[in-house]
Design a protein that fits this description.
A hairpin with a 2-residue loop joins strand 6 and strand 7. The chain folds into 2 domains: 61 residues, no CATH class; 167 residues, Jelly Rolls. The strands form 3 sheets. Strands 4, 6, 7, 9, 12, 16 and 17 form a 7-stranded mixed β-sheet that branches. The chain is mainly β. The N terminus is likely disordered. The longest helix is centred in the N-terminal third of the chain and has 9 residues.
Length: 266
């Protein structure tokens, strides 16, 4: 056996394994530690043949065949149960606008948003100057489609002018006609200054094609019925172009068919 170990130390033997699944396989032996004691005989070396059981446990562990092909993907398992529905989040406030954008715009630079709302002016002479907030979200609808229309506003003048309160107009048929809601009702009513007020157009009186008060006020329902098929081309809230010294105003909100748009900080 000593002679065999010396021989293995000098050369590497490639022996053919015999028996079992590894029969006929070639295995390179470079150390006597790869075989069990007494397995390396002169005859085995001469025949280059060993049995699988002649190999040591470590040598057997080193025997690996080539990796086989990847097996087919198994069938998809059944779908698991649906998870519990999460809690509903708080409702957002998409109607709060910090600036005029989208369907809203100002008609000139005297109209700008602030933390309190849309600021108009001040106008030294509210009879000659003014500005408007324009809403185009109802364009294409008809006057008959309007079921609710309101705005919340505050105004101030240095002369308490009776016709200085901001007003609302609905322009129709490509701006060829309009319906005006005038809180002063042609100076017969004087809304208070320096306090926010909400004016609901559809429960008040209005005028059709009569911005200058040459005719009389009519109930909203009467004007709506007479012109229900006319198409809206813009809704304007205006301060100025009527009267009032040092006129200024703040528009806090506009509501159209229940959709409330609030201006300024929430």
């Amino acid at each position: 056996m000593k002679r065999t170990i010396i021989a293995l130390g000098a050369i590497a033997l490639t022996l053919a394994l015999a028996g079992g699944a590894w029969a006929g396989k070639r295995y390179l032996i470079t150390s006597s530690s790869q075989v069990k004691p007494g397995s390396l005989t002169g005859q085995n070396i001469k025949n280059h043949s060993l049995g699988l059981n002649d190999l040591s446990r470590k040598a057997k562990g080193g025997l690996k065949g080539a990796r086989g092909p990847k097996g087919a993907t198994g069938a998809t398992g059944p779908q698991g149960p649906k998870g519990d529905k999460g809690d509903k989040g708080d409702k957002g406030d998409p109607g709060t606008l910090l600036r005029l954008s989208g369907d809203f715009s100002g008609t000139n630079a005297s109209v700008a948003t602030s933390l309190d709302g849309v600021q108009f002016g001040p106008y030294a002479n509210g009879g000659n100057a003014g500005g408007s907030v324009r809403y185009d979200g109802a364009d294409g609808m008809t006057l008959g489609d309007i079921s609710e229309l309101a705005y919340k506003i505050m105004h101030s003048t240095s002369d308490d002018n009776a016709i200085s309160a901001p007003y609302l107009r609905i322009f129709l048929n490509n701006d060829t006609h309009d319906v005006i809601f005038d809180p002063t009702q042609c100076a017969t009513t004087v809304p208070p200054e320096d306090v926010f007020q909400t004016f609901e157009v559809t429960t008040g009186s209005v005028r059709y094609d009569d911005d200058s008060c040459t005719g009389s006020q009519q109930p909203w329902a009467t004007v709506k019925a007479a012109h229900s098929g006319e198409v809206i081309s813009g809704i304007y809230v205006t301060a100025g172009f009527a009267g009032g010294a040092d006129l200024s105003a703040i528009l806090r909100s506009l509501s159209v068919n229940g959709h409330v748009f609030t201006f300024g900080a929430p």
